Amino acid sequence: MTPIETRDLLQSLPLFDCLQGDQLDQILDRHRMTFHESDQVIVMEQDWGESVFLLCSGLAKVRTHTVDGDEVVMTVLGSGDLFGELAVLDGADRSADVVAITSLCLVKFRAAPFTALLQKKADFALAFARLEASRLRDLNRRFALQRGDATARLLDALAYLARKSSGSFCDPQAPIPLIAQRELALIAGLSRETASRTLSKLRQRNIVADEDAGGLRIVDLRPLQKRGLLD
Question: Domain of 197: which CATH number?
Answer without folding.
Answer: 1.10.10.10
